């Protein structure tokens, strides 16, 4: 029996070694597939950096395999005990949950490739916010014109079936009849495997637990993302999210509350304000020193309408002849940025002048999201405006409807208010039909009114009518569909403008054209400013504006005070922005956030900060890092002020009172 016990220990160790090798083989295959599908053609990455990515990636893969091993070891103990009585039952208790776990890991590993193609970073806890919107999310992630779901599914199924067969074959060799608790060597071998699994999951035998910062081994953002295992990214980001929620968004503080109060008021520099609260250092009454005007306000929030493809902003590929023409008739802000990279961030920043939070958008935040801000529609509603929001999709998505109603929007018009014939794209109603409905709706509103029109044709899967496609030969590869949708969005916008010019109410209306965010482009930097750069255009067919181009650094939070500056009068607000017509360029900034990274843009400089990394200063014109310590420290102080005050306000609910 002693000899059999020794053989059994060896068989168990061999079993887990084979399991380890198979899991690592699967992860290597997924990494190769990742390179094949996502490698940035515009960036030259040295081969040695790519090879190093596999080495660093092994640390993260090893962590996931270690966690997998701990779980399967515990299941193995159950199998080993029950094996004495009923091998078939014991085998199923081990194989079924283990195979399901492998399938989940495998699916996430390969599914992450399409997620990365769309967003430019690995899957993380933010995806958990969209479990109720499966159809829309699947359409977004897997929208590439060269995406073949059969290929992905085939690879996943083949690897999963192979894992099941390997597991069955090796379990049969452990079908032995021993007293488990009396077999000390078997017990020790299992404990050794569990111990090794625990240390692997921690990232080794070091004191510090493995975190995503260890994956930042190069100056190439793409390769750093490549190194981090997507399952690790999802798990770690979820852990960090829950940790912040449990501790009330605990954040290592740089400034006291009094310092934050002083800093943010210096940043905003509202010379027309009387501050009225200690709880919220931004709550103020702003006197514009102008007579009040009751212009209608129409914000056209354009999906993913980024500067990179706008001719009026120097695009190499010009997709916007109609916007270009319009830009010559209004005020174009040429150095303007979205605060985040999701629609929910853009809607909040434009509507309530609040920056993009690091953790979760205020539209979806359970506590903060249920408390009203001093929003633009709320301020105008108090002046007697009728307020509305028009969208071609489901306004419940991202909790848009609830957030907007709480913050002063009375009427929500979405896909439910359109005919079935109008819903010709995956997300709902295309832009041309949306704008037709909007003109009819605005014609019947009581004056004055405030309305936001949110477009969606320029959103994955870019399923516009083939008759409107500018590029029909796939000349830009996987980007072709996106560029066609962009061109269609501009075409629909042109039709809207022509119809609006014919309406009498339009002469007394401020039209605000702004994007909700940009979309992924290749970059070596952890925060790619090109993904955030969008247009802001103020226009009216009346005599409200003199055409000009302004280069002041600005962002979506500046829209509220800028519009109110035009409308004049006195108003109560807690805006994080500035009136762009009276602010000085020397004290103007744009705060941007994406996942674990955040930063501040000032003219052509970008300060990049993030969890677990040192702040860096980037020259955006030259696309290179700078060693200007004084400027870095100044912009870092501004970045930390935004981050810490935003975090503090959401924790304590002091963004309104």
Give the structural class: alpha/beta
Strands, count? 17
Strand % is: 5-15%
Shape: globular
Share in helix: 40-55%
Quick rundown:
This protein is α/β, with parallel strands linked by helices and 657 residues long.
Labels describing this entry:
single chain, 657 residues, alpha/beta, 9-stranded mixed sheet, 5-stranded antiparallel sheet, 17 helices, globular, disordered N terminus
Can you characterise this structure?
This protein is of the alpha/beta class and about 650 residues long. Helix content is about 45%, strand content about 15%. The protein is built from 17 helices and 17 strands. It has helices at about 1-40, 45-80, 85-120, 135-140, 150-170, 185-200, 220-225, 230-245, 255-270, 320-325, 345-350, 375-380, 400-405, 430-445, 480-500, 560-565, 630-650, and strands spanning about 275, 285, 295-300, 330-335, 385-390, 410-415, 450-455, 510-515, 535-540, 550, 555, 570-575, 590-595, 595-600, 605-610, 615-620, 625. Strands 3, 4, 5, 6, 7, 8, 9, 10 and 11 form a 9-stranded mixed sheet that branches. The protein has a 5-stranded antiparallel sheet with strand order 13-14-15-16-17, with helices on one face. β1 (about 275) and β2 (about 285) form a beta hairpin. α2 (about 45-80) packs parallel to α7 and α14 (about 430-445) packs parallel to α15 (about 480-500). The radius of gyration is 28 Å and the shape is globular. The N and C termini lie far apart (about 75 Å). The relative contact order is 0.12. Mean pLDDT is about 85; it is low at about 1-5.
């Amino acid at each position: 029996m002693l000899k059999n016990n020794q053989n059994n220990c060896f068989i168990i160790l061999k079993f887990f070694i084979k399991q380890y090798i198979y899991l690592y083989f699967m992860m290597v295959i997924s990494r190769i597939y990742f390179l094949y599908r996502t490698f940035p053609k515009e960036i030259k990455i040295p081969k040695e950096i790519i090879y190093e990515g596999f080495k660093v990636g092994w640390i993260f893969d090893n962590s996931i395999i270690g966690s997998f091993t701990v779980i399967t070891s515990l299941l193995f103990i159950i199998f080993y005990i029950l094996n004495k009585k009923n091998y078939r039952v014991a085998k199923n208790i081990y194989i079924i949950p283990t195979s399901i776990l492998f399938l989940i890991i495998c699916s996430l590993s390969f599914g992450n490739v399409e997620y990365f193609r769309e967003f430019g970073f690995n899957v993380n806890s933010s995806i958990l916010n969209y479990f109720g919107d499966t159809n829309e999310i699947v359409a977004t992630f897997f929208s590439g014109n060269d995406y073949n779901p059969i290929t992905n599914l085939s690879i996943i199924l083949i690897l999963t079936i192979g894992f099941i067969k390997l597991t069955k074959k090796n379990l049969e060799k452990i079908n032995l009849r021993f007293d488990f608790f009396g077999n000390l060597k078997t017990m020790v071998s299992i404990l050794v495997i569990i111990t090794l699994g625990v240390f692997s999951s921690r990232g080794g035998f070091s004191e510090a637990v493995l975190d995503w910062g260890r994956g930042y081994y190069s100056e190439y953002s793409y390769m750093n993302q490549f190194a981090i295992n997507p399952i690790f990214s999802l798990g770690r980001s979820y852990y960090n999210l829950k940790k912040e929620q449990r501790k009330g968004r605990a954040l290592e503080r740089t400034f006291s509350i009094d310092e934050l109060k002083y800093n943010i008021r210096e940043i905003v520099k509202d010379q027309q304000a009387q501050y009225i609260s200690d709880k919220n250092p931004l709550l103020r009454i702003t006197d514009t020193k102008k007579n009040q005007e009751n212009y209608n306000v129409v914000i056209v929030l354009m999906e993913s309408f980024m500067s990179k493809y706008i001719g009026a902003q120097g695009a190499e590929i010009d997709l916007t002849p109609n916007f270009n023409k319009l830009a010559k008739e209004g005020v174009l802000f040429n150095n303007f940025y979205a605060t985040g990279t999701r629609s929910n961030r853009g809607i909040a920043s434009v509507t309530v002048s609040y920056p993009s939070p690091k953790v979760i958008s205020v539209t979806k935040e359970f506590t903060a999201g249920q408390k009203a801000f001093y929003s633009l529609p709320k301020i105008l509603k108090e002046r007697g405006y009728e307020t509305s929001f028009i969208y071609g999709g489901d306004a419940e998505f991202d909790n848009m409807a609830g957030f907007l109603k709480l913050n002063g929007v009375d009427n929500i018009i979405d896909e439910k208010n359109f005919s079935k014939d109008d819903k010709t794209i995956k997300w709902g109603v295309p832009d041309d039909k949306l704008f037709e409905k909007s003109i009819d709706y605005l014609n019947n509103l009581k004056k004055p009114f405030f309305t936001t029109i949110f477009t969606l044709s320029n959103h994955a899967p870019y399923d516009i009518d083939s008759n409107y496609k500018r590029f029909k030969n796939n000349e830009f590869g996987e980007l072709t569909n996106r560029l066609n949708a962009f061109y269609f969005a501009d075409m629909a916008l042109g039709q809207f403008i022509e119809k609006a010019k014919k309406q009498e109410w339009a002469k007394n209306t401020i039209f605000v054209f702004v994007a909700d965010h940009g979309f992924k482009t290749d970059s070596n930097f952890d925060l790619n400013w090109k993904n955030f750069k969008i247009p802001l255009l103020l226009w009216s067919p009346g005599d409200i504006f003199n055409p000009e181009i302004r280069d002041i650094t600005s962002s979506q939070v500046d829209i509220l005070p800028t519009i109110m500056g035009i409308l004049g009068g006195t108003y109560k607000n807690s805006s994080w922005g500035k009136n762009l017509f009276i602010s000085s360029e020397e004290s103007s900034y744009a705060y941007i956030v994406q996942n674990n990274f955040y930063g501040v843009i000032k003219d052509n400089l970008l300060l990049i900060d993030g969890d677990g990394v040192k702040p860096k200063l980037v020259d955006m014109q030259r696309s290179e890092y700078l060693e200007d310590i004084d400027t870095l420290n100044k912009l870092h102080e501004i970045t930390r002020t935004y981050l810490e005050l935003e975090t503090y306000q959401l924790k304590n609910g002091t963004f309104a009172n």
